């Protein structure tokens, strides 16, 4: 009898794409936060 899939392969591909996209966005946010924290002490030293 075989396995039936409710979603077609294109929909499954899009779901994986959006999961990876969300993961990349989270990583970008973490890096951005780290960069801001890194820059803060440098600005106070210049003054």
What features would you highlight for this structure?
47 residues; single chain; 1 helix; rod-shaped; mainly alpha
Task: Please explain how this structure is put together.
This protein has a domain of 29 residues. It is mainly alpha-helical.
Sketch the topology as an H/E string, one letter per element. Answer: H
Residues in helices, as a percent range: over 70%
Q: How would the global form be characterised?
A: rod-shaped
The end-to-end distance, rounded to whole angstroms, is 74 Å
Gyration radius, rounded: 21 Å
Structural class: mainly alpha
Unreliable residue stretches = none
Q: Indicate the mean pLDDT.
A: 82
Indicate the proportion of strand residues.
Answer: under 5%
By DSSP (H or I, 4+ residues per run), the number of helices equals: 1
**What's the number of extended β-strand segments?**
0
Q: Give the biggest sheet.
A: none
């Amino acid at each position: 009898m075989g396995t039936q899939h409710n979603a077609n392969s294109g929909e499954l591909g899009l779901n994986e794409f959006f999961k990876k996209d969300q993961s990349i966005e989270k990583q970008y946010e973490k890096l951005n936060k780290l960069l801001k924290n890194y820059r803060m002490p440098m600005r106070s030293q210049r003054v």
